[in-house]
Structure formats: structure tokens, C-alpha cells
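Recall the central idea of this unit: under ordinary conditions, the amino acid sequence of a chain determines the structure it adopts. In this exercise we apply that idea directly, starting from the sequence alone.
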Amino acid sequence: AYVDAHEATYVDRLKEAVAIPSVSAWPSHRGHILRILEYAKAWGERLGAIEARFVENPKKATDATLPPLLLMTFDDEAPSTTTTTTTTKKRCVLAYGHLDVQPAKKEDGWTTADPFVAEDVVDSKTGVRYLRGRGASDDKGPALSWLWALEAHRKLGLPCPVRLQLLFEGMEEYGSLGLPEFIFAEAAKGRDGWLDEVDYVCVSDNTWVGAKTPCLTYGLRGMAYFELQVSGGTLDLHSGTHGGAVASEPLMDLVHLMASLVDPPAGPGVGDESSMTTNGAATVTQQPTTTTNGVAKAKEDPPVVMVVPPPTTTTNGVVKGPRYKPLHERIRIKGILDDVAPVTPAERDKYAAIDFDVDAYRDAGLGGAATLPGADKTELLMSRWRFPTLSVHGIEGAFAEPGAKTVVPGTVKGKFSMRLVPNMTPSGTEAKVRAHVESVFEALGSRNTMKLTCLHAGPSWVSETDHPNYVAGANATRRVHGVEPNLTREGGSIPLANWLEDATKVNVLLLPTGAADDAHHAQNEKYNVTNLVNGIKVLGTYLHEIAKLEGPRPSKCRCAPEPFDVTIVGAFARGFRCFCEI
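Accordingly, the structure predicted from this sequence is:
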């Protein structure tokens, strides 16, 4: 009742937070990141944090614009003189959030006058009220909700049922620069580190799979992001003056390379080896020729390789559409699916239980007819979460402004990435991608140079849905929303889940509060007011559900079970009950 009664207050505060343009990708805006971190710190101090301090970014020596990390601790049973490493009897939850945002400009296609002035909107069709503005849902609304949940306890005279540590950063949208270094350095300190007390981790930085049913997320895809550079001359050239004299234009080479990564929708796919050449693509070969006095002669240059899509079928003269394959089956990189585990019946049953409307997804402006035609719920969700994918993002160095410019770029860089699933490693993926582009480039016979760089990469992550941390999250969601939460995976990547789990050896729960149509990273990002209010309730209730858990604290009991006990439900694994209790 208290949270519902203060809806207007929470809306006004989120408007204040959105108004701070904390765009981490723009170095000129890094000062605004410090402003929003100071805003959160001031609230933490107001709510009685036993510590609220900034820690210098571990990478600041290489970039003076990097903002600090914000650490806050709340422990109602501890005296004001308690140090950050004092042992407490309460269970300890580490909650993470980021207060930086993606770039946003009016000219990007926002319907609001200014992406950083949140608009209070009521949808004319659905009646749903929401705040539209950059960062409303990703991640200022959910992150700051931890503070509002604490405030509710204070106003109601209730002690916080757990020791709560908040870790807020301001560089998540730019690769979380410095954060993994901080996490692993603190973990290495053992009993003297800031993470020593942590029993459970909770992250609210993704969304539900739909707009109505809440969820708990137990899996994320990893990512490997590549830059493919092709260089010719040191300068751009006039296409009229020099066109024809250039043996291989860098942009043309790059287009060939990028096109070789994935077949068209009706392409042969990785399973149709009969249609593949040694370069892993359906091709035809033409031997270049030269002429002397009109007589064609073969050149010594290597043959030109051209990708040829399969023909469409016809019936009675009517052209039928080609057979479409999921993207992961069309990736042309040899061996890329070798490590992907087969789908089990039990896994397929998990997808069948998810509340997801395929038609609503197709109609929500997410691709429409471009989504996989004929795919059912399970196939569509597995394509989004469970299988790898490859996406092309753009080309640097090529002319991309309005109008026309007759230039032959001297150097161009293609950007593409792969989303990785369990058993795929970043290093193994890079090696296979490198072998592919080198093979295709060699076949082009180009006089240019080619260089592939993996800009950043991280593995996938999967957790256990029967872990006590997930049980607490499910109970909290059930109490607030009155429904059973979906158990979902996520197609995106949150490297933080791996960093915290690897460093602390405790379970990480992803507990999203936003709806699937919140448009993270896109134009017109929003956060439903009901999600804002209920999110505060869920996070607060989750702390009480954690406090109900019994047995030794995971941070204080590191004994390993006997090998035969590992298979017992509840055995120690990433924070499960330990052998001494089983």
C-alpha cells in the first residue's frame, strides 16, 4: 500500500534521473555520469547506508574521463562504526545496477522532443501509462528501485531483512571499463575484500519475454565482436579519375567478405555440404581473362568467387517462396555449430511452458513479416536465446551521409558480431571466424590487405533455476504479481553475470522488472509506470524471501561435497547447500 500511494513520487524521481544525460559512449558526457552517481550516493546516505563511497575506476590511468564505481552497504543490525569487512549474521545480497545510458538524439527517430526529458504518456490503444525517455528502463528505473525499496522499509519502520550491498557503475553501455578488474581484485582480497560477505547476487538489467508475464532469467548468450579491415591505398580516390585503374577496391572486397559469412534466407545452410566449396559457400568460379587485339586470354590472377543463391521453386509458372532456415543454420563459418549441444526433450518442455505470444511479437514492430515465417513459439524463442547467431552492424570509412559522393575509400572496416551459446568459447569462435575470412580473402585474389580484430568477447552464462536464490526470486514475483513467473533465457549478453559468479562463487539471479517492449537501446525507450511500482515491490519482497532461507551462508561455508553428492538436488554448486548440511 505504501509503494502504491507514492507512485507519483517515484515517477517524478525517474524523470529527474532521465534528465541527466549520462551517455557513456560520449566522452564529453562523462561528467553527467558522475552527476547521476552522486545523485544515487546522496540517496544512499539519506537512507542510512553504513558506507557510501566512490572507488576510482581501475582503468582511469589510461582514460582520465572514466567515472568511479559507487559502493553502498546497508546493514540495520550493524553499528555506525562497522567496517565493510565485519562479519554479519544476516544473509548478504549484492545488487548491481548501471546508471549510464545509450546515446540518444531527436534526429535518431524519437517522437519526444528531447530523449532526456521524460514524457508521461498514456497509450491510446492499450491505456498503458509509461515514461518515455532514454534510460528509463535501461537501467535507471530498475537500479534506483533498490533505493526506493529501502526507503519504504524506513518509512514503515521495518528493518532491512538482509545486509544489502549496492554496486552501481557508469560505463556498462561502453563495455563496463574497469569493472571486471575491480570485481576480481576485491575477490582476491578474501576476508579483506568488499565482496567477502556476499551470499547471493541479484541483477535487474534485462526485460521480460513479453509485456504481461514477469520472468526470471537463467541464461545469457555470450558475444564475440569483430572488426574486419580491408586497406588499399593510403588515400581515398576519385572514382572517375582513378576508377578502373584500381585492381581491387577495398569496399568491394569487404562486401564480398561480409556476404560470405551468412547465406541468404533460402541459402544452403551449414547442413547442406553438397552445395559448399572449400570456402564454405555456394559458389561458381569464373577465370579472369584479358584481351589482346580482341582475343580473350586467361590471366594469371586467381579465379573470382561469386555467391549464388539457390533458385526459387515454381508451380504452373507461379514463383514460390524459397525455404527459410533459422539464422544459425545459415552461418557459413566451418565448424561453428560443432560445440552447440543438441536440444533435449526436457529443455524443449521448458520452452513450451513459457507464456509468449508469437503473433504479438511479430506485430510489435520487431520485424513483422521479416521474422521467421512459420516458426512456432519454441522455434522462435530458441532462435533468439538458445542458438548462436551472426549479425552485421555497419561499415566504417565508407560514405554514409545523405547525398552522393564519388569516392573509392582507401580503408574500410566492417563490424559484425556473433552471439555465443554454452560450450562455444570466444577463443574457439575467433579461430574459426579467422580461418573463414582468410580463406575467402585468399580466393578473391585481391591486391589489398585484410586484418581481422576481435574487439571484445565474453562467454555465455547459464544458471540453475532450482537454486535457493531463484526460489526466492520466484516467490517474490508470485507474491507481487500473483502469477507464476516464466523461466527464460536471454539473447543478449551481460558479462557481469559471469564476472560476479566466477569471482564470488555464489549464485547470480537475473530478476528483470521491465517489459519486452521497453525498447532498450532503441528510439522511444520507455518504462511502464506499473512496472516501476511493482518492480520496487518485487525487489523489496525478494530481500525478505532471501532472509527466510535456512542453512549456512554460502559466503561462509566453502566445503565441497563428496563426488557422489554432486547429483543430489540441493548439493553445493554455486552457492547450494553444502555437504556438511546434506
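Residues 80-84, 271-289, 291-321, 561-577 have pLDDT under 50 and may be disordered.
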